[in-house]
Fold this sequence. Notes:
Elements: H1 3-12, H2 25-53, H3 62-82, H4 86-108, H5 123-147
Amino acid sequence: MTGSTAFRLRQLASPRRPPPGPGAVRPAAALLLRLGCVALLAWIGYIHLHLWQEGYRHIPTNGPLFLLDAVAGFVLAAVLLTWPRPLAGLLAAGYTASTLGALIISLSVGLFGFRESISASYVTESLTIESITVLALISWTVVVAATRRPASPQPATGRPARSLR
């Protein structure tokens, strides 16, 4: 991993917050967007758990993946709720995009020998919710990453640099 990539990952996971200023509405909007994303991720988890309980658990390979998807939805909702960093948003967006992609593949050509029908329970709802969730998570991640202060370089000793004045 290059130095700039490692620096950018540390910056995305950084707990630093921007100083309060004239754009104080932005943190409130970001909070509401994040809470909406948390609710959408939990909803995706619930749908997958419900479908797994209703019989998808008996489908080879896809059944366990539905349970894994449900657990991942709940876990990522909790992570985004408790650790509001751009990296968490990127991880959740990747999860949601892959779930949406798997549904589209299952609808078009089949996935692991199982082909989903558009008329099946929660298929149209899942397509809608997962699409909205991906867009909301990417939006939240961009807003939060754009409002963060860049990390200030510290001397190697860990003490703040002295002013020369």
